[in-house]
Write a structure and sequence with these properties.
The structure is a single chain. The protein is an alpha/beta fold. It has a single domain (7-156), classed as 3-Layer(aba) Sandwich (Rossmann fold), CATH 3.40.50. Helix content is 49%, strand content 9%.
């Protein structure tokens, strides 16, 4: 991996869904597994809960669950999620009956990117043109680095042809 050693990616459910539907799925998963093994991909538990939408991929990720699902119990993390929810209520489904992971992905990056931390945390989402692209907009508004799945792979494996 030639990517930045101090970079960790927080992957949203939309990226996992994109992997499942990609014709190069096995090739992508090979490189994703390298990043998980190197502890360069993490997700909040809420992403894991949303992965019921992609059961085959969830089954593939299950053995590596402890390496990439990160629980944070700090009050500052919950406050960051509250700030994201307040500022972007439609993205976080604040008025819906189901919990979404989007605000937790961004909150994790906000919390883990606080000054004094050694690593940069980048949100990875894969939102199509039809969606309102709320995660990239929220990341920009809250000064959180963002990329998509192929951008992450290009950054980490520049010698490959993604």
């Amino acid at each position: 991996m030639a990517g930045e050693d101090n970079r960790v990616y927080i992957v949203d459910t939309s990226s996992w869904i994109a992997v499942e539907s990609d014709p190069s799925q096995n090739w992508i998963l090979y490189f994703v597994s390298k990043l998980i093994e190197a502890r360069k991909i993490i997700c909040p538990p809420e992403v894991w809960a949303e992965l019921k939408q992609v059961p085959r991929l969830k089954a593939w990720l299950e053995p590596m669950k402890d390496r990439h699902i990160r629980r944070i119990g700090a009050a500052e993390y919950y406050l960051a999620a509250g700030r994201v929810t307040e500022r972007f209520p439609m993205m976080s489904a604040a008025r819906a009956n189901k919990e979404k992971a989007d605000q937790w992905v961004i909150a994790m990056a906000l919390y883990l990117n606080e000054p004094g931390r050694a690593k940069e945390h980048v949100v990875v989402s894969q939102e199509g043109f039809r969606k309102r692209q709320t995660i990239p907009k929220a990341c920009a508004a809250m000064s959180v680095p963002h990329t998509d799945l192929l951008g992450m792979l290009r950054d980490e494996f520049p010698e490959e042809d993604f």
